[in-house]
């Protein structure tokens, strides 16, 4: 039977979620249902552009002529190493640039938050002529540079050190698959340069309590040796926080929610073994205290075998 | 890595209970700001501590104290840090809440908040820096006069505090050495409520709730009986009424100006051969309170303002010095370091904050808490500080709109600002003027910290150059002007009897 999916290929998905009026890269969140083979290492750069003109001030969508169009350009280096074929470690290293087409706020740029993930395929089961896998993923991210979170919408990030836990289910039958996951993100408090701030009341401290978040992701599509084409729906919710009041500035601990719809395409080349290209796009269809952004990006990945002396062939891999 | 507790320590909630080194029993002899005499408003003679009504009031305290909940204990501790302190914080809170510029109308004009209809959008007020400076000043001056009057009557009536009358009354706060009638806490509360309702007429629920909590805290603490509070509050309200009367006629109500005036100011600058200020907002917003410079100051009259306080004209927008100063700001904007940005953001005090005057109120309060002043001295010191800040605002706005000069980002559109560009002319810098005045007054009150306050003022001033929204001249002349205003407050301090 023909191999259904290319285990040893690099199967990273850039999950780039634009939060509010900045681009919060949840670095390289591994949110797909595929694993790297043992001792294989996949690495590569991606780049993308996200922009918005309208944003939600609380639940009220508006534009702001004093900010115009906010554009975020992101570059990311991502890597994924298979400790075993059921245990992977991943990292993501982002560099972000922001700018506004109007007003006097200065462009921001810098290294954002480094992220690490551990992905464990805990359980798999043959079901209805397909394969159901259960994965547990843990991740941690922290800011790499000294950027300020306090000049939203142009701040490149929010600075909280995030710890996340994800439960993921992936079902594939033939070339068709669906993946669903739920994530809980614990966000640490952050500190500002100023020693007081007002949310819904005054706070005489430079420390800001950051509410946690949840995320649900559902994707479905087609996987073959050469292609992955998937449609994605993603919903993020902030548990707590407060709304931007009318004509006020945004703030790091706002209640930021967002729902995006998007697509991801991966193409595995046949002229260089281990080389693949990815393309992503998404649009924000609902939100609260975030920009209504559209994103396009792409990347290139290369997979290397650190394990055996000779390269494994595709026929060595599992097939069902 | 995973810090499960997100609990934050807020500095103002850690302040200790007020326990004055010097109770300032003679504060009734200090010179008031507006009152013609400490006893301008009468205070009815209190009932004797032996009277049956008084016994009822003692029992009221005892019943409160029988079963004190955690919430009540927190209230006592919160208000126990000081009445002048907490009501000043409440003013800062309302300023921050209302410090948001109105959103535009569909036709590109801007609506003006209405004091008569404060809850309709745009809610009243837009608590910008001059508005805030005036609010803090009226609050502090009214609290001060209320204290002078209350302390006068304390000495006259000399009615002992409840815990001295009845030793079974618990004291949850340090025992005051003063007679408790009339309550200075309640006088400060009554005065504060009147001024807060004047300045924030849409927030009366919140203000009244705070007043109820304050008075209840004093009862639970065993510090006052009900008649102490009633007399104090009545006195405070009467005293504040005089300040409300002054506020209604101090010309602040006309500070918004008119479209004809805004155009006239622009034409005047052009006719002098200068580039006039313009709004950098889209759509263009009218300048902020262009006639605030005409408001009646506490410390100087209009002649003194013109002859002694007003700074000279800024460098002409056509001059070489102007170009040099402009280039200096462009360089800061282009090459801002992280440390410069930290300083700019620390002092920015822009939209959604308590404003630069509020920042100096916080600095002062934080200092005073450690010095264990009496309520009367707290009030006197905050009044000196805030009168100097309001009058600094008047002097600053007088200069800004007399000279109407343009911001750096206007003259060189490459210049960006991490603090955002305020919607009014550049010369002189508000931050610098406020800081010059405040540091002068605080250095007088705490002479051991002259260098510290001077350094703070200089940093606040230069933060505006780092934020690329002011030229060097704005900042230097601002500090100098502020110092001149601050010195007038110091002169008053030398003669008000509190030294």
Question: What would you say this structure looks like, in words?
Answer:
The complex is a heterodimer of chains A (320) and B (499). Chain A is mainly β. Chain A has one domain: Porin (Beta Barrel). Chain A contains no helices and 19 strands. The termini of chain A are close together. The model of chain A is unreliable at 1-29 (pLDDT under 50). Chain B is mainly α and 499 residues long. Chain B folds into 2 domains: 15-31 and 55-248, Vanadium-containing Chloroperoxidase, domain 2, CATH 1.10.606; 257-495, Vanadium-containing Chloroperoxidase, domain 2. Chain B has helices spanning 52-66, 70-80, 83-98, 129-157, 162-165, 184-199, 204-220, 226-248, 259-271, 302-309, 320-335, 338-347, 355-371, 375-403, 408-411, 430-445, 450-466, 472-495. Chain B is elongated, with a radius of gyration of 24 Å. The interface between A and B is large, with 40 and 45 residues.
Features:
heterodimer; A: 320 residues; mainly beta; Porin; 12-stranded antiparallel β-barrel; two-stranded antiparallel ribbon; 19 strands; 0% helix; globular; B: 499 residues; mainly alpha; Vanadium-containing Chloroperoxidase, domain 2; 2 domains; 18 helices; elongated
What order do the helices and strands of chain A follow?
Answer: EEEEEEEEEEEEEEEEEEE
Shape field of chain A: globular
Which fold name fills CATH's third level, the topology of chain A? Porin
Give the neighbour order of strands across the main sheet of chain A. 1-4-5-7-8-9-10-15-16-17-18-19
End-to-end CA span of chain A: 7 Å
Q: Give the overall average pLDDT of chain A.
A: 89
**Class by helix and strand content of chain A?**
mainly beta
Mean pLDDT level of chain B: 97
Q: Span between N and C termini of chain B?
A: 53 Å
CATH architecture of the largest domain in chain B: Orthogonal Bundle
């Amino acid at each position: 039977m023909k191999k259904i999916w290319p285990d040893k290929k690099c199967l990273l998905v850039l999950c780039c979620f634009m939060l509010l009026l900045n681009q919060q890269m949840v670095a390289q969140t591994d949110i797909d249902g595929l694993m790297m083979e043992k001792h294989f290492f996949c690495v590569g750069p991606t780049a993308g552009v996200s922009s918005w003109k309208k944003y939600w001030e609380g639940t009220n969508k508006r534009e702001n002529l004093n900010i115009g169009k906010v554009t975020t350009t992101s570059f990311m280096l991502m890597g994924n190493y298979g400790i075993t074929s059921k245990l992977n470690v991943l990292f993501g290293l982002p560099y972000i640039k922001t700018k506004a087409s109007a007003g006097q706020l200065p462009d921001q740029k810098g290294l954002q938050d480094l992220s690490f993930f551990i992905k464990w395929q805990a359980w798999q089961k043959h079901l209805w002529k397909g394969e159901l896998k259960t994965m547990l993923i843990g991740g941690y991210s922290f800011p790499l540079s000294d950027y300020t979170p306090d000049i939203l919408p142009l701040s490149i990030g929010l600075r909280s050190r995030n710890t996340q836990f994800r439960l993921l289910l992936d079902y594939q039958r033939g070339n068709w698959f669906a993946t669903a996951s739920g994530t809980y993100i614990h966000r640490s408090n952050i500190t500002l340069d100023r020693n007081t701030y007002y949310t819904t009341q005054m706070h005489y401290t430079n420390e800001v309590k950051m509410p946690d978040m949840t995320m649900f992701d559902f994707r479905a599509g087609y996987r073959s040796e050469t292609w992955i084409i998937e449609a994605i729906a993603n919903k993020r919710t902030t548990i707590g926080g407060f709304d931007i009041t009318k004509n006020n500035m945004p703030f790091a601990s706002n209640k930021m929610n967002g729902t995006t719809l998007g697509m991801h395409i991966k193409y595995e080349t046949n002229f260089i073994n281990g080389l693949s290209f990815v393309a992503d796009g998404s649009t924000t269809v609902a939100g609260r205290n975030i920009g209504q952004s559209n994103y396009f990006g792409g990347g290139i990945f290369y997979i290397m075998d650190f394990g055996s002396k000779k390269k494994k062939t595709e026929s060595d891999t599992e097939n069902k | 890595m995973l810090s499960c507790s997100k609990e934050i320590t807020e500095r103002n909630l850690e302040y200790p209970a007020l326990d004055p080194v010097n109770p300032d029993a003679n504060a009734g002899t200090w010179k008031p700001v507006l009152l013609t005499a400490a006893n301008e408003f009468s205070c009815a003679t209190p009932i004797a501590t032996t009277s049956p009504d008084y016994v009822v009031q003692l029992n009221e305290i005892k019943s409160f104290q029988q079963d004190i909940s955690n919430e009540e204990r927190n209230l006592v501790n919160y208000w126990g840090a000081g009445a002048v302190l907490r009501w000043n914080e409440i003013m800062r809170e309302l300023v921050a809440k209302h410090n948001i510029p109105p959103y535009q109308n569909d036709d590109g004009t801007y609506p003006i908040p209405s004091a008569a209809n404060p809850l309709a959008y745009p809610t009243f007020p837009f608590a910008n820096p001059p508005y805030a400076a005036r609010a803090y000043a009226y609050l502090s001056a009214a609290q001060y006069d209320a204290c002078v009057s209350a302390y006068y009557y304390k000495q006259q009536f000399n009615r002992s505090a409840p815990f001295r009358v009845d030793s079974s009354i618990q004291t949850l706060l340090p025992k005051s050495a003063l007679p408790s009638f009339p309550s200075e806490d309640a006088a400060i509360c009554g005065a504060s409520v009147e001024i807060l309702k004047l300045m924030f007429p849409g927030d009366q629920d919140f203000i009244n709730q705070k007043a109820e909590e304050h008075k209840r805290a004093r009862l639970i603490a065993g510090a006052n009986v009900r008649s102490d509070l009633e007399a104090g509050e009545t006195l405070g309200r009467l005293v504040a009424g005089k300040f409300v009367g002054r506020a209604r006629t101090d010309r602040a109500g006309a500070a918004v100006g008119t479209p004809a005036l805004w155009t006239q100011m622009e034409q005047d600058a052009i006719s002098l051969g200068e580039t006039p200020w313009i709004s950098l907002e889209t759509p263009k917003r009218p300048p902020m309170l262009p006639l605030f410079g005409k408001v009646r100051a506490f410390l100087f009259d209009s002649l003194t303002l013109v002859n002694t306080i007003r700074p000279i004209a800024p460098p002409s927008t056509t001059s070489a010095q102007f170009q040099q100063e402009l280039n200096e700001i462009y360089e800061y904007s282009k090459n801002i370091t992280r440390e410069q940005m930290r300083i700019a953001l620390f002092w920015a005090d822009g939209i959604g904050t308590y404003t630069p005057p509020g920042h100096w109120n916080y600095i002062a309060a934080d200092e005073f808490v450690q010095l264990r002043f009496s309520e009367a001295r707290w009030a006197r010191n905050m009044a000196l500080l805030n009168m100097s800040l309001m009058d600094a605002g008047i002097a600053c706005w007088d200069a800004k709109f007399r000279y109407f000069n343009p911001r750096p980002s206007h003259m060189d559109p490459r210049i960006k600002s991490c603090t955002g560009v305020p919607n009014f002319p550049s010369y002189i810098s508000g931050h610098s003027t406020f800081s010059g005045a405040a540091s002068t007054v605080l250095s007088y009150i705490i002479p051991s910290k002259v260098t510290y306050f001077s350094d703070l003022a200089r940093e606040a001033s230069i933060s505006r150059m780092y934020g690329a929204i002011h030229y060097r001249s704005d900042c230097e002349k601002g500090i100098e002007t502020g110092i001149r205003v601050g010195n007038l407050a110091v002169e008053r301090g030398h003669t008000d009897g509190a030294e």
